[in-house]
Amino acid sequence: MIDVPILNFSSPEEIISNAEEVIETFKSFGVVAIRGANLTVEQQVFVTKALGDLTGWVPNNSSNFEQQYVENHKRLSNKEDIAGDKVALGWHMEHVEYDHISPIIGGSWNMVKFTADPETGRTYFVNTAKLYDTLPDSDKEFLETAYVLWSEPGEDREFVTKAVRQHWLTGEPTIRLHIAEPFTEPKNLARIYDREPTEEERSRFVILRSKIISRIHNDENIRIVHRWNQGDLLIPDLFKGAHAATGGFTSDQREFIGYWLYPEDPDTHVEYEGLAKEVSNRVARTEELNVPK
Question: Domain range holding 190?
Fold first, then answer.
């Protein structure tokens, strides 16, 4: 496994004065950790927006849009019974269905509380741009022209996204596929080579997607790991970052304040309003936390 690169900066001002190093590390690895940050919520927003001014992500100082949430994985009822090196929160990519409107491209994760064993509650990543690079040329060509139809079981909603998209910052071809339930309909290839797919091509896509999922789940040579300290600020690239979390902790031992990063202000898209309501269940309950504002 590959360790997430850690930069040691102890104040918002020090982070911003070293913004070039932060951004270059983020671009190269797809994730960067700042140890010793110990940011308040206001300081986290300040840093996130300042870096957004340089990368183009939202939030930045040209936009009033902020989407905060708090994550302690309370919904994972058995996480404390799962070993610290075993996955408790399954592998996933963040809301690929938003690609047709405004995708989530990253996060700003401020670990305000971490009192668990340092070998537990890890976050795992796989860089899907680098994973794409390892595929045979024939599979690359196939995926580059693939459009995928996604549907949620029990929901009257469908959407089409590209299987591979150009990365918003680096320009790399990047795999953009749902890899977790409920987005696992077996015949979900919508178009290929700018035409309707054959049944053989539909089957090939299902097999290829399964191979990609298997690599993400099982190939430790491409796995990136972050072992948390309280006070860490982690900035993951969620456009190319499949990710998961390991167990061994309780909800009152591990909690971070997060901000979603977007390539533009989602409020500028009329379709976004409905999707925003879906995310609203994860919007911050900051008033319940004993965290400085």
Answer: 129-218
